[in-house]
Amino acid sequence: PKSNRNCEIVNLTPHPVVFKRDGMDDLVIESSGSVRAEEMFSEEPTDTVDSIPVYDLSYTGKIIGLPDPVPGRVYVVSMIAAQAMLALGIKRNDVVSPNFVSALGGAPSVTLHI
Predict the structure, then answer these.
(1) 3-state secondary structure the chain
(2) Given this model, what pLDDT does residue 89 score?
(3) pTM of the prediction?
(4) Which of 41, 44, 55, 102 is such that its CA lies 20 to 30 A from the CA of 25?
(5) The dihedral sign for the CA sequence 111, 80, 10, 114
(6) Residue 28 in contact with residue 38, Cβ under 8 Å?
(7) Contact predicate 10/73, CB 8 Å
(8) Is the C-alpha dihedral spanning 57, 62, 65, 69 positive or negative?
(9) Which sign, positive or negative, has the C-alpha torsion 100, 64, 29, 31?
(10) Which of 32, 35, 1, 5 is nearest to 16 (CA)?
(11) Nearest 5°: phi and psi at 83?
(12) CA–CA separation, 33 and 74 (whole Å)
């Protein structure tokens, strides 16, 4: 069953997040910091494009900046951070991410990752 309880939305992406609401003004949540997957670049270039060195990017398996759960609070993180969390087996029902949804004409939506 769905709950109508109020919750606090904390934006942990590096930019404002805008929620479109039917019949209501947009809800804009400013950034309160950011959660990210720790990156690691190759020491040597893996390719060269137009004489520009290209380095390989991978993730170390560390999620940086994710607060502990707080009852009644939902954290919005980037899609990359959410995907890294899922790949690492970190499952939190208080973490959501913007998602590109072609069925909505490409409009961003929020997907709950449980």
Answers:
(1) CCCCCCCEEEECCCCCEEECCCCCCCEEECECCCCEEEEEECCCCCEEECCEEECCEEEEEEEECCCCCCCCEEEECCHHHHHHHHHCCCCCCCEEEEEECHHHCCCEEEEECC
(2) 85
(3) 0.69
(4) 102
(5) positive
(6) no
(7) yes
(8) positive
(9) negative
(10) 32
(11) -65, -40
(12) 14
pLDDT digits (tens, 9 = 90+) for 39-96: 888 889 889 999 999 988 777 678 999 999 999 999 999 888 888 888 888 888 899 8
CA distances, 9 to each of 14, 35, 51 (Å): 15, 14, 45
Q: Is the pLDDT of residue 101 over 70?
A: no
Distance CA 102, CA 34 (A): 26
